[in-house]
Amino acid sequence: MAVRMKDVAQSLGVSIVTVSKALKNHPDIAKATRERVMAKIKEVNYRPNLMARSLVTGRSSLVGLIVPDLIHPFFSEIAKSLSSALRKKDFFLLVASSESDAVLEDAEIEHMLAHRLDALVVATTQSTSEKLRKVSENGPPLILLDRDFLDFRSNFLGSNDYKVGELATEHLIAIGRKKIAHIRGPENRVGKSRFEGYQHTLERHGVAIDPRYVIAPLGSVDVDGRRRGETAMKHLLSLKMRPDAVFCFNDMIASGAMMAALDAGLKIPRDLAVIGCGNYHYDELLRVPLSTIDQRIEPLGLRTAKMIFRLVEAEGPIRPQRVILEPELVVRESSRVVK
Protein backbone atom coordinates (compact mmCIF):
# COMPACT_ATOMS: atom_id res chain seq x y z
CA MET A 1 0.00 0.00 0.00
CA ALA A 2 1.31 3.45 -0.95
CA VAL A 3 2.53 5.65 1.91
CA ARG A 4 0.36 8.76 2.38
CA MET A 5 1.35 12.22 3.63
CA LYS A 6 -0.92 11.52 6.61
CA ASP A 7 1.21 8.46 7.48
CA VAL A 8 4.42 10.51 7.37
CA ALA A 9 2.88 13.18 9.62
CA GLN A 10 1.62 10.64 12.20
CA SER A 11 4.97 8.86 12.39
CA LEU A 12 6.70 12.15 13.17
CA GLY A 13 4.01 13.55 15.45
CA VAL A 14 3.49 16.63 13.29
CA SER A 15 0.58 17.94 11.23
CA ILE A 16 -0.05 17.22 7.55
CA VAL A 17 0.38 20.95 6.93
CA THR A 18 3.90 20.79 8.42
CA VAL A 19 4.86 17.92 6.10
CA SER A 20 3.39 19.74 3.10
CA LYS A 21 5.26 22.95 3.89
CA ALA A 22 8.50 21.03 4.49
CA LEU A 23 8.19 19.46 1.03
CA LYS A 24 7.81 22.93 -0.48
CA ASN A 25 10.76 24.29 1.54
CA HIS A 26 8.43 26.87 3.10
CA PRO A 27 10.21 29.49 5.28
CA ASP A 28 7.74 28.85 8.16
CA ILE A 29 9.34 25.44 8.79
CA ALA A 30 12.47 25.25 10.93
CA LYS A 31 15.53 23.68 9.34
CA ALA A 32 15.63 20.84 11.91
CA THR A 33 11.95 19.99 11.30
CA ARG A 34 12.39 19.98 7.55
CA GLU A 35 15.40 17.67 7.85
CA ARG A 36 13.35 15.26 10.01
CA VAL A 37 10.52 15.28 7.47
CA MET A 38 12.84 14.73 4.51
CA ALA A 39 14.66 11.91 6.29
CA LYS A 40 11.36 10.16 7.07
CA ILE A 41 10.13 10.61 3.48
CA LYS A 42 13.30 8.95 2.23
CA GLU A 43 13.01 6.16 4.79
CA VAL A 44 9.41 5.23 3.91
CA ASN A 45 9.78 5.98 0.18
CA TYR A 46 6.92 8.48 0.16
CA ARG A 47 5.94 10.02 -3.18
CA PRO A 48 3.56 13.01 -3.40
CA ASN A 49 0.25 12.37 -5.16
CA LEU A 50 0.55 14.84 -8.03
CA MET A 51 -3.01 14.27 -9.21
CA ALA A 52 -4.41 15.06 -5.76
CA ARG A 53 -2.21 18.14 -5.55
CA SER A 54 -3.41 19.34 -8.96
CA LEU A 55 -7.03 19.12 -7.80
CA VAL A 56 -6.21 21.45 -4.89
CA THR A 57 -3.85 23.89 -6.64
CA GLY A 58 -5.32 23.77 -10.13
CA ARG A 59 -1.84 22.94 -11.48
CA SER A 60 -0.20 19.62 -12.30
CA SER A 61 3.35 20.96 -12.82
CA LEU A 62 3.35 18.91 -16.04
CA VAL A 63 4.11 20.18 -19.54
CA GLY A 64 3.55 18.05 -22.63
CA LEU A 65 5.80 18.03 -25.70
CA ILE A 66 4.80 16.19 -28.89
CA VAL A 67 7.34 16.03 -31.72
CA PRO A 68 7.49 14.15 -35.05
CA ASP A 69 10.55 12.09 -34.09
CA LEU A 70 12.36 11.58 -30.77
CA ILE A 71 15.59 10.48 -32.47
CA HIS A 72 15.79 13.60 -34.64
CA PRO A 73 18.59 15.78 -33.15
CA PHE A 74 16.62 19.02 -33.46
CA PHE A 75 13.69 17.74 -31.41
CA SER A 76 15.76 15.75 -28.90
CA GLU A 77 17.95 18.78 -28.20
CA ILE A 78 14.87 21.00 -27.87
CA ALA A 79 13.44 18.51 -25.35
CA LYS A 80 16.69 18.51 -23.37
CA SER A 81 16.91 22.31 -23.24
CA LEU A 82 13.22 22.71 -22.39
CA SER A 83 13.26 20.03 -19.70
CA SER A 84 16.30 21.58 -18.01
CA ALA A 85 14.68 25.03 -17.91
CA LEU A 86 11.33 23.70 -16.63
CA ARG A 87 13.00 21.69 -13.85
CA LYS A 88 14.39 24.87 -12.31
CA LYS A 89 10.82 25.93 -11.49
CA ASP A 90 9.64 22.45 -10.47
CA PHE A 91 7.84 21.68 -13.73
CA PHE A 92 8.26 18.33 -15.44
CA LEU A 93 8.21 17.42 -19.12
CA LEU A 94 6.22 14.58 -20.69
CA VAL A 95 7.47 13.75 -24.20
CA ALA A 96 5.80 11.80 -27.00
CA SER A 97 6.49 11.16 -30.69
CA SER A 98 3.89 11.34 -33.47
CA GLU A 99 6.21 9.54 -35.93
CA SER A 100 5.16 12.24 -38.43
CA ASP A 101 1.67 10.69 -38.45
CA ALA A 102 -1.22 13.16 -37.99
CA VAL A 103 -3.57 10.44 -36.70
CA LEU A 104 -1.03 9.30 -34.11
CA GLU A 105 -0.44 12.93 -33.17
CA ASP A 106 -4.17 13.30 -32.42
CA ALA A 107 -4.03 10.23 -30.15
CA GLU A 108 -0.94 11.51 -28.34
CA ILE A 109 -2.61 14.90 -27.78
CA GLU A 110 -5.66 13.23 -26.23
CA HIS A 111 -3.43 11.08 -24.00
CA MET A 112 -1.44 14.13 -22.92
CA LEU A 113 -4.55 16.17 -22.11
CA ALA A 114 -5.75 13.40 -19.78
CA HIS A 115 -2.79 14.29 -17.51
CA ARG A 116 -4.26 17.75 -16.77
CA LEU A 117 -1.26 19.51 -18.28
CA ASP A 118 -0.36 23.07 -17.41
CA ALA A 119 0.76 23.63 -21.03
CA LEU A 120 1.12 21.65 -24.27
CA VAL A 121 3.88 22.19 -26.87
CA VAL A 122 3.42 20.62 -30.31
CA ALA A 123 5.69 20.44 -33.36
CA THR A 124 2.78 19.44 -35.50
CA THR A 125 2.48 17.20 -38.55
CA GLN A 126 -1.12 18.29 -39.20
CA SER A 127 -1.92 19.66 -42.67
CA THR A 128 -4.61 22.02 -41.31
CA SER A 129 -5.12 23.95 -38.09
CA GLU A 130 -8.62 22.61 -37.31
CA LYS A 131 -7.81 20.10 -34.57
CA LEU A 132 -5.17 22.23 -32.88
CA ARG A 133 -7.56 25.15 -32.87
CA LYS A 134 -10.00 23.03 -30.82
CA VAL A 135 -7.24 22.13 -28.37
CA SER A 136 -6.40 25.83 -27.98
CA GLU A 137 -10.02 26.73 -27.31
CA ASN A 138 -10.81 23.96 -24.82
CA GLY A 139 -7.54 22.76 -23.34
CA PRO A 140 -4.47 24.12 -21.52
CA PRO A 141 -2.28 26.83 -23.09
CA LEU A 142 -1.04 25.59 -26.48
CA ILE A 143 2.33 26.47 -28.01
CA LEU A 144 3.23 25.53 -31.57
CA LEU A 145 6.91 24.79 -32.12
CA ASP A 146 8.87 25.08 -35.38
CA ARG A 147 5.80 24.90 -37.67
CA ASP A 148 2.54 26.85 -37.61
CA PHE A 149 -0.44 27.91 -39.78
CA LEU A 150 -1.32 31.15 -41.54
CA ASP A 151 -4.99 30.88 -40.55
CA PHE A 152 -4.43 30.12 -36.85
CA ARG A 153 -3.12 32.81 -34.52
CA SER A 154 -1.39 30.88 -31.75
CA ASN A 155 1.58 31.00 -29.41
CA PHE A 156 4.54 30.08 -31.59
CA LEU A 157 8.31 29.70 -31.40
CA GLY A 158 10.53 28.98 -34.37
CA SER A 159 13.33 30.11 -36.64
CA ASN A 160 13.29 32.62 -39.47
CA ASP A 161 13.13 29.89 -42.11
CA TYR A 162 13.21 32.26 -45.08
CA LYS A 163 16.50 33.58 -43.67
CA VAL A 164 17.79 30.00 -43.40
CA GLY A 165 17.42 29.55 -47.17
CA GLU A 166 18.82 33.00 -47.85
CA LEU A 167 21.93 32.58 -45.67
CA ALA A 168 22.75 29.15 -47.08
CA THR A 169 22.38 30.23 -50.71
CA GLU A 170 24.24 33.52 -50.23
CA HIS A 171 27.14 31.57 -48.75
CA LEU A 172 27.31 29.12 -51.65
CA ILE A 173 27.23 31.98 -54.16
CA ALA A 174 29.92 33.83 -52.17
CA ILE A 175 32.32 30.87 -52.50
CA GLY A 176 31.88 30.89 -56.27
CA ARG A 177 29.30 28.17 -56.88
CA LYS A 178 27.05 28.57 -59.92
CA LYS A 179 24.93 25.40 -60.10
CA ILE A 180 23.25 25.26 -56.72
CA ALA A 181 20.75 22.50 -55.99
CA HIS A 182 18.26 22.28 -53.14
CA ILE A 183 16.98 19.11 -51.47
CA ARG A 184 13.67 20.30 -50.11
CA GLY A 185 11.81 19.68 -46.91
CA PRO A 186 8.12 18.97 -46.32
CA GLU A 187 5.28 20.95 -47.90
CA ASN A 188 4.64 22.97 -44.75
CA ARG A 189 5.54 26.56 -43.88
CA VAL A 190 9.06 25.57 -42.82
CA GLY A 191 9.89 23.74 -46.04
CA LYS A 192 8.25 26.36 -48.25
CA SER A 193 9.97 29.29 -46.50
CA ARG A 194 13.44 27.75 -46.81
CA PHE A 195 12.82 27.05 -50.50
CA GLU A 196 11.65 30.63 -51.06
CA GLY A 197 14.79 31.96 -49.37
CA TYR A 198 16.89 29.81 -51.74
CA GLN A 199 14.81 30.75 -54.80
CA HIS A 200 14.71 34.51 -54.20
CA THR A 201 18.44 34.67 -53.43
CA LEU A 202 19.32 32.99 -56.73
CA GLU A 203 16.96 35.35 -58.57
CA ARG A 204 18.50 38.37 -56.84
CA HIS A 205 21.94 37.31 -58.07
CA GLY A 206 20.70 36.66 -61.61
CA VAL A 207 21.20 32.91 -61.34
CA ALA A 208 18.67 30.89 -63.30
CA ILE A 209 16.90 28.17 -61.31
CA ASP A 210 17.14 24.77 -62.96
CA PRO A 211 14.04 22.81 -61.86
CA ARG A 212 16.08 19.60 -62.13
CA TYR A 213 18.18 20.87 -59.23
CA VAL A 214 15.22 21.11 -56.86
CA ILE A 215 14.49 17.72 -55.32
CA ALA A 216 11.52 16.93 -53.08
CA PRO A 217 12.42 13.71 -51.23
CA LEU A 218 9.55 11.24 -50.81
CA GLY A 219 8.44 10.37 -47.29
CA SER A 220 9.23 12.05 -43.98
CA VAL A 221 12.43 14.07 -43.70
CA ASP A 222 11.97 14.10 -39.92
CA VAL A 223 11.90 10.32 -39.43
CA ASP A 224 14.19 9.14 -42.26
CA GLY A 225 16.13 12.20 -43.39
CA ARG A 226 19.53 10.59 -43.90
CA ARG A 227 18.24 7.96 -46.33
CA ARG A 228 16.11 10.57 -48.13
CA GLY A 229 19.19 12.75 -48.57
CA GLU A 230 21.21 9.86 -49.94
CA THR A 231 18.50 8.99 -52.49
CA ALA A 232 18.09 12.63 -53.56
CA MET A 233 21.84 13.07 -54.05
CA LYS A 234 22.07 9.94 -56.21
CA HIS A 235 19.43 11.49 -58.45
CA LEU A 236 21.37 14.77 -58.69
CA LEU A 237 24.57 12.89 -59.53
CA SER A 238 22.79 11.07 -62.36
CA LEU A 239 22.21 14.37 -64.20
CA LYS A 240 24.36 15.13 -67.22
CA MET A 241 25.09 18.58 -65.81
CA ARG A 242 25.77 17.97 -62.12
CA PRO A 243 25.38 20.72 -59.50
CA ASP A 244 28.50 22.08 -57.85
CA ALA A 245 26.72 22.86 -54.56
CA VAL A 246 23.67 21.74 -52.64
CA PHE A 247 21.64 23.33 -49.86
CA CYS A 248 19.82 20.67 -47.84
CA PHE A 249 16.67 21.27 -45.81
CA ASN A 250 18.34 19.94 -42.65
CA ASP A 251 21.57 18.36 -41.46
CA MET A 252 20.18 14.83 -41.51
CA ILE A 253 19.45 15.14 -45.23
CA ALA A 254 22.85 16.79 -45.74
CA SER A 255 24.71 13.93 -44.02
CA GLY A 256 22.98 11.40 -46.30
CA ALA A 257 23.67 13.55 -49.36
CA MET A 258 27.38 13.81 -48.46
CA MET A 259 27.58 10.05 -47.93
CA ALA A 260 26.22 9.42 -51.44
CA ALA A 261 28.58 11.97 -53.00
CA LEU A 262 31.64 10.57 -51.23
CA ASP A 263 30.69 7.01 -52.14
CA ALA A 264 30.46 8.14 -55.78
CA GLY A 265 34.06 9.35 -55.59
CA LEU A 266 33.43 13.10 -55.37
CA LYS A 267 35.64 15.31 -53.25
CA ILE A 268 33.88 17.65 -50.81
CA PRO A 269 34.12 20.64 -51.13
CA ARG A 270 36.26 20.57 -54.29
CA ASP A 271 33.65 18.89 -56.51
CA LEU A 272 30.58 19.62 -54.43
CA ALA A 273 29.93 22.10 -51.61
CA VAL A 274 27.28 21.04 -49.10
CA ILE A 275 25.39 23.00 -46.45
CA GLY A 276 22.54 21.91 -44.18
CA CYS A 277 20.48 23.43 -41.41
CA GLY A 278 20.29 22.70 -37.68
CA ASN A 279 23.87 22.69 -36.38
CA TYR A 280 23.38 19.33 -34.70
CA HIS A 281 25.86 17.98 -32.16
CA TYR A 282 27.41 15.49 -34.61
CA ASP A 283 28.06 17.90 -37.52
CA GLU A 284 31.75 18.39 -36.67
CA LEU A 285 32.28 14.60 -36.40
CA LEU A 286 31.18 13.64 -39.93
CA ARG A 287 33.75 12.41 -42.48
CA VAL A 288 33.68 15.95 -43.82
CA PRO A 289 32.61 18.43 -41.09
CA LEU A 290 29.31 19.92 -42.22
CA SER A 291 28.60 23.61 -42.83
CA THR A 292 25.16 24.51 -41.55
CA ILE A 293 22.70 27.18 -40.55
CA ASP A 294 22.44 27.29 -36.77
CA GLN A 295 18.79 27.39 -35.63
CA ARG A 296 19.96 28.17 -32.07
CA ILE A 297 18.24 25.14 -30.61
CA GLU A 298 19.17 25.67 -26.96
CA PRO A 299 17.90 29.29 -26.88
CA LEU A 300 14.73 28.06 -28.60
CA GLY A 301 14.13 25.59 -25.77
CA LEU A 302 14.81 28.25 -23.15
CA ARG A 303 12.46 30.74 -24.82
CA THR A 304 9.78 28.04 -24.96
CA ALA A 305 10.10 27.54 -21.19
CA LYS A 306 9.88 31.30 -20.64
CA MET A 307 6.67 31.41 -22.70
CA ILE A 308 5.21 28.51 -20.70
CA PHE A 309 5.88 30.29 -17.38
CA ARG A 310 4.24 33.45 -18.75
CA LEU A 311 1.12 31.55 -19.82
CA VAL A 312 0.82 29.51 -16.61
CA GLU A 313 1.27 32.49 -14.31
CA ALA A 314 -1.20 34.71 -16.21
CA GLU A 315 -4.40 35.37 -14.27
CA GLY A 316 -6.56 35.39 -17.40
CA PRO A 317 -6.37 35.00 -21.20
CA ILE A 318 -3.47 36.83 -22.84
CA ARG A 319 -2.72 37.58 -26.46
CA PRO A 320 -0.79 34.89 -28.36
CA GLN A 321 2.92 35.56 -28.59
CA ARG A 322 5.09 34.87 -31.62
CA VAL A 323 8.85 34.44 -31.11
CA ILE A 324 11.15 34.10 -34.14
CA LEU A 325 14.88 33.50 -33.60
CA GLU A 326 17.32 34.65 -36.26
CA PRO A 327 19.58 31.86 -37.64
CA GLU A 328 23.35 32.09 -38.03
CA LEU A 329 25.78 30.75 -40.62
CA VAL A 330 28.35 28.18 -39.42
CA VAL A 331 31.06 27.43 -41.99
CA ARG A 332 32.96 24.13 -41.81
CA GLU A 333 34.96 22.01 -44.24
CA SER A 334 32.04 20.97 -46.47
CA SER A 335 31.81 24.47 -47.98
CA ARG A 336 35.24 25.98 -47.49
CA VAL A 337 36.71 28.03 -50.33
CA VAL A 338 38.84 25.71 -52.46
CA LYS A 339 42.25 27.20 -53.17
From TrEMBL:
Transmembrane domains' residue ranges: none
Gene Ontology MF terms: DNA-binding transcription factor activity; transcription cis-regulatory region binding
Protein keywords: DNA-binding, Transcription, Transcription regulation
Residue span(s) of domain HTH lacI-type: 3-57
Domain of life per record: Bacteria
Keyword match Plastid: no
Stated name of the protein: LacI family transcriptional regulator
